[in-house]
Write a structure and sequence with these properties.
Elements: H1 5-12, H2 15-23, H3 32-35, E1 42-49, E2 55-56, E3 64-65, H4 71-76, E4 86-95, H5 102-117, E5 123-127, H6 133-143, E6 150-153, H7 166-177, E7 187-191, E8 194-197, E9 202-203, E10 212-213, E11 221-223, E12 228-230, E13 253-257, H8 265-273, E14 277-282, H9 290-301, E15 305-310, H10 325-328, E16 331-332, H11 338-350, H12 356-364
Parallel strand pairs: 1-4, 1-5, 5-6, 6-7, 13-14, 14-15, 15-16
Antiparallel strand pairs: 2-3, 7-8, 8-11, 9-10, 11-12
Helix pairs in contact: 6-11, 8-9
Bound molecules: aspartic acid (ASP).
Aspartic acid binds near residues 50, 96, 98 and 154.
Length: about 375
């Protein structure tokens, strides 16, 4: 018989009963912390879906569907997590993060801002698919103006898998979100005992549980069931946060992937589709063929904001080396990968920042 972690938790206690208690925000059982008079931190868990909430489906092999289990039930199935924090759980969406979109991002911001304004919470955990986790983390980092920990967590194996990594990751995320030392560190990503910062984290492996890395800087800390360590003191963010429009969508920004034998067609198509910005996932130091660079220069002349990034996966994209950025009106993404450069450029254009110099300055912050 295959006994997965949800099933074993079901035999240990009633998920439904505990999930109901979580939904109405009942305090957890008495703990040493409470006995000593220290209130547990209040942590709001916002479920969006992902493999962490995935369940095996009827197809053969290791096939599964993302986003099937609610955040409340995921929490209810983890022994001892209720001793870390007073937990409440809500569902924002139930999707695989390959379907992540502006609406869910706006809903997350709205709920988190309300929780902060109402002083409801000391920390937030967001359960999320790993495919676009780095984009959501970076988006939130750019728009949320708060010191409270906001922690994204997911898993590489669905809840029904042998050796599911979701429970340990969620437990670790709760430790991080409920800890005072996590304040003032921006939006964090927790998986596989490792804590990453939103600007640097990237998914680097299709299936390994050790998929998240921060190639240019390394993780910001480590966490496990017994310890939480940050490698540097918190540096409260100085950068002004970007404003969100009242409603989605954000302005259209396309990513164009550079390759050998590249012509101008993809750039020209993006302009025809109405892209307000283009991020080049360039070869090497953000390069592309002469045809593609010429087409990008023509797009920039027409008012499309062009940012050169790289498909390489680590390192900085540098200005004015092989490409004459000053002359052609381009910005470079520096250490931001194409998918994060796209997020920042959408937000900048939404805030009216389109002049290449101002865009470049924003990428450097
Ligand atoms: N496709 C899944 C998702 O991003 C993968 C995962 O969560 O690991 O939702």
């Amino acid at each position: 018989m295959t006994l997965h972690w949800l099933q074993s938790a079901r035999s240990a206690r009633s998920i439904i009963g505990l999930a109901a208690a979580l939904m109405i925000g009942l305090a957890s059982p008495a703990t040493a912390q409470q006995a000593s008079g220290t209130a547990l931190a209040r942590v709001l868990v916002l479920g969006t879906g992902g493999t962490i909430a995935g369940q095996a489906n009827a197809r053969a092999g290791n096939a599964y569907d993302s986003g099937k289990v609610s955040a409340a039930n995921l929490i209810a199935a983890i022994p001892g997590i209720d001793r870390l924090a007073q937990i409440s759980a809500e569902q924002i969406s139930s999707i695989g993060s390959q379907d992540m979109n502006d609406k869910v991002w706006f809903d997350l911001v709205k709920r988190i801002r309300a929780a902060i304004d109402n002083k409801e919470v000391d920390g937030v955990v967001i359960t999320h698919g790993t495919d676009t986790m780095e984009e959501t983390a970076f988006f939130l980092q750019n728009v949320l103006d708060t010191d409270i920990p906001v922690v994204l967590v997911g898993s590489m194996r669905p809840s029904t898998a042998i050796g599911a990594d979701g429970p340990a990751n969620l437990y670790d995320a709760m430790r991080v979100a409920s800890a005072p030392e996590s304040r003032g560190r921006g939006v964090l990503v927790v998986l596989n005992d490792t804590i990453h910062g939103a600007r640097w984290v990237q998914k680097t492996n299709t299936t390994s549980v050790q998929t998240f890395r921060s190639p240019d800087v390394g993780p910001v800390g480590y966490v496990d069931t017994g310890s939480l360590r940050f490698l540097q003191p918190a540096i409260p963010a100085k950068a002004a946060k970007l404003k969100l429009p009242d409603a989605p969508p954000l302005p259209r920004v396309d990513i164009i992937y550079s390759h050998a034998n590249m012509d101008a067609a993809e750039v020209e198509d993006a302009v025809k589709r109405g892209a307000k910005g283009i991020v080049l996932a360039g070869v090497g130091d953000g390069n592309s063929s002469k045809s593609a660079i010429d087409a990008l220069a023509a797009a920039a002349k027409q008012g499309v904001v062009v940012v050169r990034s790289t498909r390489v996966g680590s390192g900085y994209v540098n200005r004015n080396v092989e490409v004459e950025d000053d002359k052609l009106g381009f910005a470079v993404s520096l250490d931001l990968n194409p998918q994060k450069a796209r997020v920042l450029l959408e937000l900048l254009i939404a805030n009216g920042v389109t002049e290449p110099g101002a865009v470049q300055q924003a990428f450097a912050q």
